[in-house]
Write a structure and sequence with these properties.
With 208 residues, the chain is mainly α. Helices cover 52% and strands 2% of the residues. The protein has a two-stranded antiparallel ribbon. Helix 6 packs across helix 7. The longest helix is centred in the middle third of the chain and has 20 residues. It is elongated and about 70 Å long. About 3% of the residues have low confidence.
Length: 208
């Protein structure tokens, strides 16, 4: 980790750290909001914070450290809730997501992206099925993906394009049979559909 970074750790065990230079860290053990987030790769990855967010977290921590009696005060629950909200906002900042995204919607968005990654190679997988798997309406999904400046359909296509590009880069001969196989494995219904998606992503589809 470097300056102005934070890490979310899944578990209640103590943390240890070492460094070759003088430094320090803040450690908080919270039951919420992060335990409700199922996305496993959220944990144990350094998240870089902006100056404003880092200052907010540091100042909040310093207040609690300077006033240890706050944890047993009548307003302790409200103060803990405020700290949770502050740290949640810091995680969103570190992930590059807007702070207007609620915890519940953040979890649904992560689950949607996980499902797209897991099922994009199935050419019959649709946004209707994605919404059904998440038990939400398609219109809600569209509003949710707007937080990351895209739509569910574009996110699904972009994931398929990434798969196709990786496969094509590892294939020296682009025969018709090879192109058919790449399109199928990447989740496209046809080579033509793959070519169109590659063009929309400003990639030149290879000739077969």
């Amino acid at each position: 980790m470097t300056r102005q970074q934070m890490v979310v750790v899944d578990g209640a065990g103590p943390l240890t750290a070492s460094a070759s230079a003088t430094w320090g860290w803040f450690e908080w053990q919270l039951s919420t909001p992060f335990h409700s987030v199922r996305r496993r790769d959220l944990f144990m990855q350094p998240l870089s914070l902006t100056d404003d967010t880092f200052t907010l977290v540091a100042n909040t921590t310093n207040v609690f450290c300077a006033q240890p009696g706050l944890s047993s005060s009548p307003g302790a629950r409200a103060l803990t809730g405020a700290l949770n909200t502050t740290l949640y906002a810091a995680v969103l900042d570190g992930l590059g997501l807007p702070m207007s995204l609620s915890l519940t919607n953040f979890e649904v968005l992560k689950r949607a992206l996980d499902l797209i990654e897991a099922r994009h190679r199935d050419s019959t997988f649709t946004i209707r099925e994605l919404a059904a798997a998440l038990s939400v309406h398609q219109s809600f999904l569209n509003r949710l993906f707007a937080h990351i400046d895209t739509t569910p359909r574009r996110a699904l296509e972009a994931t398929r394009v990434d798969s196709a590009r990786s496969l094509l880069e590892g294939t020296p001969q682009h025969s018709r049979e090879t192109m058919d196989n790449v399109a199928h494995v990447a989740g496209f219904a046809s080579v033509q559909q793959m070519r169109s998606a590659l063009r929309r992503s400003h990639l030149d589809p290879p000739d077969a």
